[in-house]
Amino acid sequence: MACGDSPATFESWLNHATDPNNQEDRWDCIQGFYQLVNQDTDGPQIAVRLLAHKIQSPQEKEALQALTVLEACMNNCGKRFHTEAAKFRFLNELIKVLTPKYFGAWTPQKVKDRVIEVLYGWTLWLKDEPKVQEAYSMLKKQGFVKKDPKLSDKLIMAPPPQRPPDSVFDQEDKAKLLARLLKSSSPEDLETANRLIKSTIKEEQERTEKVLKRESTLKEVESSTKQLRELLDQHRSTGTPLQPSDDMKALCERCDRLRPSLFRLASDTVEDDAALAQILSANDELTLVVNAYKDQVRRRESNGGRERSKSEEEVSELQNQQFSGSGSLSLAPKQPNDLSGESLCPPQFLKNIFVSLETIKSSQLEPITLYDQGGVHASLHFAKDSPPGHPGVAVVVISTVNTSALDVKDFLFQAAVPKTMLVKLQPASGTRLPPYNPLLPPPAISQVLLLANPEKRKVRLRYKLTLTHGDQHLNETREIDCFPDWTSLIGH
């Protein structure tokens, strides 16, 4: 057995497949797991229970590998597994990874993104499972999913097996064996020859059916890809903004639904290099045109000429601002040349405002990840309400957790905003986080950020994050321009 000498069990296959020390995907163990799912009467029920536990792991690599196993099972275990995975019992376990009430506060962002991608893919490919549609719609309504993700270009499939050149199943050897058996006068040999002929005919029929199915699917993929590309080219040639028609939306949905068919074809075609290359090429073309369509739709929904130029001005301003530390304001000197460039906030506007961390209620807005590496996760969380008596001030909490085996110390967060806004950072709850203890919930460093934006412009924030993780010193400066709109931030 590939994963050790102990008897093969669901737990042993999955433990090896999701080991954080794996340097690459252990497809021998992944295949062993989903083959056992197919063989056992209760395989799907056992599998989803074990997978849920692994996906909720604080170890990012373990959770991501568990999601790879889940997708492999979806591609190889058929209707029984689909039905079990689409039940609320399992869907709720996936949703717990996203919600702060359960594991969302410390789940790595890569794991959250992958879970959302998996659920979104199921809404496209499992149209006959209403609970999947309902669960994903609920996540969107509650703000955990802001927009549909791009589906991964990666095919979740095992690498092709190495076939020995002198395989006893080569057609030439079969023909020699059959000729020898037919020449024999032994009844047993003749019976063996009869079985060999029947099995050969059956194999040939199955091979022919697979080829016909592959050709039919590839033809449909090629046709759909070509149609969508031609529609996109028409819009590019006219220079007009994309206005998706019902037919274009239906065509894009059909392209999305064809992807799992390509996954299954690739899994069944690993021994035919030329056919596999054709499938992978078709998948690449399909993915490119679907992503191009979705990018144009997103640009149409989010961009405007005047807003873009104003945003570019704010980026330039932001790069010249000085960072604010704990308890300070963004008081970089400015010399406005017109009223639109002046801040409507007096410099001391936020000075006397203080918000206790215990009084803050979390909103349903999706947190923004600042840093997520090596088990250290820092993110921005948005409060539901403005401070009492200050309805125009947004409250944001910087939360940092440590799920690694090393300690974190010397934590410092600084922020700067454009001159039309003001920012104040209250003192952080601490500067150090101990190594992760699996028996206790991970502790957090929390810091309240207050933000005033009287002109209600698009929020842009430049931050500097410094900390020491073990012996490694981090000094990171970045800019955030993906804040929710201002009305959502202040809760009215």
UniProtKB/TrEMBL annotation:
Biased composition (Basic and acidic residues): 297-313
Location of the GAT domain: 171-298
InterPro entries, per database record: Clathrin_a/b/g-adaptin_app_Ig, Clathrin_app_Ig-like_sf, ENTH_VHS, GAE_dom, GAT_dom, GAT_sf, GGA1-3, GGA_N-GAT
Membrane-related topology note: Peripheral membrane protein
Residue ranges, annotated region (Disordered): 297-338
Entry keyword annotation includes Transport: yes
Residues forming coiled coils: none
Annotated Polar residues bias: 318-329
Entry-linked Gene3D superfamilies: 1.20.5.170, 1.20.58.160, 1.25.40.90, 2.60.40.1230
SMART domains: Alpha_adaptinC2 (SM00809), VHS (SM00288)
GO CC annotation terms, alphabetical: early endosome membrane; trans-Golgi network
Entry similarity comment: Belongs to the GGA protein family.
Name this protein carries in UniProt: Golgi-associated, gamma adaptin ear containing, ARF binding protein 2
Organism name: Anabas testudineus
